[in-house]
Amino acid sequence: MTQEDDTNDDVTLAGEYALHLMDAAQRRAFQARLDAEPALRRLVVEWDEQLVPLADNFADVRPPKAVKSRIDAVLFPAAAKQSWSLWRVLAGSAAAAVIAVAVLVTIPQDEAPLPFTPSLAAEIVAEDQSLVVLASYAPETGILRVDRQAGAAPSGRVLELWLIAEGAPAPVSLGVLPEDAVTDITLPADLIAAIAGGTLAISEEPFGGSPTGTPTGTVLAVGAVTAI
Amino acid sequence: MTTREDVENLIQRVGLGDRAAFSALYDATSAKLFGVCLRILNDRAEAEDALQDAFVRIWQKAGSYAVNGYSPMTWLITLTRNLAIDRLRARKGGAVDIDEVHDLKDTGPTPEAAAVAASERSRLDGCLNELDADRADAVRGAYLEGYSYDELAARFDVPLNTMRTWLRRSLIKLKECLSA
Q1: pLDDT tens digits for B141-161?
Q2: What are phi and psi of A146, to 5 degrees?
Q3: Contact assessment for residue B35 and residue A54, using Cβ atoms and an 8 Å cutoff
Q4: Nearest-CA neighbor of B73 among B164, B4, B166?
Q5: Which of A178, A185, A200, B160 is 20 to 30 Å from the Cα of B31, by its Cα?
Q6: Under 8 Å CB-to-CB from B54, ≥6 apart: which residues?
Q7: What angle do helix axes A65-75 and B44-61 make, rounded to 10 degrees?
Q8: Which of B31, B85, B122 sits opposite A186 (nearest CB)?
Q9: Strand pairing partners for A192?
């Protein structure tokens, strides 16, 4: 085997590793090589960087608040214990109880998720009513809530949501809709201004969404965004 | 919006043990990373556990970020995706239920955030488009759903060795295209 073949093999192996296609034993063996071979590590980094645009297809979903508390409790157990004992000291004294109540009153406000109060909405409806999707946008949260009330993607296809900003030359993808009826999309900052007065559309696309960045399948339903 | 420099700066501060930076990094990136976990695992409780694993690892590994050669979001996404897939594989125990694999088809949340510059995305899309459609879908399925060779073979109804050959040849073609 020539040196070039070896290099090609390593490029492919690094790609398989980056995609996480190896089984557990292969992966461990490859990781042992990674520890010893900086050139191989560079190949993996290069693949990870080249493949990461696919990660645009992962929806932003805000995790529940409890997850961060759990992480902090794992990483900083002493700090968690400290604030707990401080709490007990405060709660233990009658004078401090007043403070504790004040804390109790303020914490829930701080912790509660922002209420979803939409000010913009669109009814994205197919002409024959075979697909009915309601979208509403709450500016305080930056969330566009998409509620599919009727219809689904054709077999083997997915539904992709598009925003056509007023006067814009081309639609911008807001992503492939999941099978769940209701989904929350966190609008990227650069699209927030475009939603008011814009139009939302849904097309059917191949698995993974439009490969070109513009709709490639049939546009099934369209709806204008209006103030509510 | 948090810029690449902001995230990079936060990771470096986390590497120095800065807890405020850790919380800020969590606020800036946890929605993206939770989306990764949810898509791969398709289960909310497991996705929460995977996100927890990821941020514990981020805290522990941030000190070595500067020398690992990654751009900040790639490092965070890659680390999280790998942990989520490890968890997925552990759950499945290597066994593949073909019905389940087909059920998984087309599921999972996917609205996209502008995590990556559009030009990089169109470059990768362009190179994926040069592959046969099935093979490009197999690469996407591996990346986005964490499908193993076994699952991809079942999903595309080809023998395991054929799927291996598809993927390896696709990777070689992709690399040629991406490096051109």
Answers
A1: 999 999 999 999 999 999 999
A2: -115, 120
A3: no
A4: B4
A5: A200
A6: B33, B37, B76, B79, B80, B83, B84
A7: 40
A8: B31
A9: none
B66 Cβ under 8 Å from any chain A Cβ: no
Closest CA–CA distance from residue B179 to any residue of chain A (Å): 10
Q: Identify which of A102, A14, A100 has the alpha carbon closest to the alpha carbon of residue B78.
A: A14
pLDDT, tens digit, 9 for 90 and up, residues A130-180: 899 999 998 888 889 999 988 888 887 889 898 887 767 677 888 888 888
Beta bridge partners of A147: A134, A182
Question: For residue B37, what is the nearest residue in chain A, using CA coordinates?
Answer: A58
Tokens representing residue B28 in the block: 């800036």
Chain A interface includes B63 (CB < 8 A) = no
Distance CA A106, CA A108 (A): 6
Length of chain B: 180
Helix (H) or strand (E) holding B140: helix B133-145
Residue with tokens 């695992």: B41
pLDDT digits 0-9 by tens, B10-37: 999 999 999 999 999 999 999 999 999 9
> Chain A contacts of B174, Cβ < 8 Å?
15, 50
Contact A158 B34 (CB under 8 A): no
Beta-carbon separation of B109 and A75 below 8 A: no
| Chain centre to alpha carbon of residue B160 | 23
**3-state DSSP assignment of residue B125:** helix
Give how far Cα A48 sits from Cα of A17, A42, B4, B70, B180, Å: 9, 10, 17, 8, 17
Whether pTM > 0.90 for this model: the answer is: no
DSSP structure class, residue A186: E
b/e burial code for range B141-167 (CB count within 10 A of at least 16 → b): bbbbbbbbbbbbbbbbebeeeebbebb
A20/B142 Cβ within 8 A: yes
How far is Cα A20 from Cα B85, in angstroms, rounded to an integer?
A: 8
8 Å CB contact of B35 and A45: no
Q: Three-class SS of residue B153?
A: helix
